[in-house]
């Protein structure tokens, strides 16, 4: 990164994404997407199905390469870094379609995050995992093989593994779907707590009533471009106007 | 930064719980470990109180136990199903030949032969680990075949006719066979104990995660490539030691047999029927394979048919292998590798 580019990045941002582009063959999925997230900030990422939200998280996490643009963690260019290196720099993510380590127990799933992601050992790692399992309400099934979990618990396990990494940047991909009201409230409480610990969060979510309880800023992605960005109220009002104008909802 | 998982958060809302504890060991594990030490000590005495007639089959059995455990390290824990481990059997054997030809004592040179196989596996790993699944399996097999051809075409390595082990004429036959026996026992014990220790370590956790889901493992901070490389190269190192011991045992080696794919088939058979991804499974699998070999060797070509039938029956009726099907439902574990937590209710 050149000195001028370094200046252009908001020094304080834990994560910044700069004009990221990506296409699957001739299909452009992301085009010039840019935004930043400060420590302790929660950015809600919304948009219709197929907008490119998950693809963007994949690129930020290093699971996919972008064709253009940059990803910076605390000002450091990680665009060419492998996923595991980014994780050890403090980045954690959940998968929209859960990817548990099926042969490992629930406890061991989160332990991988604590040991490799957070770099903890022994008792400190165990306590960290316990905390993550308590927060995600999984302690009772800690000894069960992850392959035996139902979908909702698999989603919880995604969050538990990510929390056990003690991330500075956390990417969440649709973790609130299918929850009851009390469960949603508990989840919102958990995300707030993580945010209050100083973690920068990008939360992709269709359940807006959960998202708007935590997010202080929304980015709306549509067909791979940033359609609107700003305070949740403004963005949603803006999208509502557009929906009325175009005769269909963009979310 | 605590990200909300620090001490304060941990106790909130969990007042009803018992004491939280992580158990990785048990009384059974202590008994199994003590029993193993006694068994190994008793086996180490075999050359004193039993004859070479007892040594010969045990050398074979020890080598099988080592090969199964080493293949399990790679395939069972790290998820690398190789069909080319015979490359390192051969590498170990021919490295021992080279060392003995240069005047080194063959028995002292066994660790060198193992190291040679390990060193060879490093550049090979960079080529084959780019592939996965079936492609990886075929690539490892092809590499073993290339090595076999290279040895066949090299007159200095005896070509197709093979070579005899130099430097053993000075040994009394009884002593030579006892030394071979002890080496085979040592290689088996080191393989099993080494894989056991690795499986319990952070490396073992990494390997099991990589096996389950490499993409998720990378996103959780596991260095996927490095984990696979260690598993592959350590397995090759141990397999090289077995190759050298087998050469010292038969005093003769030939590319056509030492580089044969039947060795990989046997390794897979033992691990799969015994119980993949456990410490007990490959040992049990080696015992079963050895017993079948002894019992069926009189049946000529039927031997292979019966062996195949036994393998199919076990994979159909006990898909987790004999040990897995027996132990997992009952919670048995002689050599525990996992984490069991208590204080959650
Ligand atoms: N592996 C792939 N190959 C080709 N196209 C893909 C691939 N993965 C995703 N796409 C396409 O990329 C676009 C963006 O997909 P993405 O999963 O990022 O959307 P999303 O915003 O996460 O949607 P949702 O809200 O449904 O999760 C879609 O049009 C999808 O069809
Ligand atoms: Mg998505």
From TrEMBL, chain A:
GO terms for MF: ATP binding
Limits of the ABC transporter domain: 15-248
Protein name, as recorded: ABC transporter ATP-binding protein
PANTHER family the record matches: AMINO ACID ABC TRANSPORTER ATP-BINDING PROTEIN, CONSERVED COMPONENT OF ABC TRANSPORTER FOR NATURAL AMINO ACIDS-RELATED
Keyword annotations: ATP-binding, Nucleotide-binding, Transport
Species of the source: Sphaerisporangium corydalis
Keyword Transport: yes
Keyword Nucleotide-binding tagged: yes
Automatic annotation (TrEMBL), chain B:
Pfam families in the record: BPD_transp_2
Keyword Kinase recorded: no
PANTHER family linked: ABC TRANSPORTER ATP-BINDING PROTEIN, HIGH-AFFINITY BRANCHED-CHAIN AMINO ACID TRANSPORT SYSTEM PERMEASE
UniProt keywords, alphabetically: Cell membrane, Membrane, Transmembrane, Transmembrane helix
Chief site of localization: membrane
Membrane-spanning intervals of the chain: 29-50, 56-80, 110-129, 136-158, 178-199, 230-252, 264-290, 302-323
Lineage: Bacteria, Bacillati, Actinomycetota, Actinomycetes, Streptosporangiales
Entry's localization field: Cell membrane
Native source species: Sphaerisporangium corydalis
Origin superkingdom: Bacteria
Keyword Lipid metabolism: no
InterPro entries named in the record: ABC_transp_permease, LivM-like
Membrane topology listed for this record: Multi-pass membrane protein
Name of the molecule in the record: Branched-chain amino acid ABC transporter permease
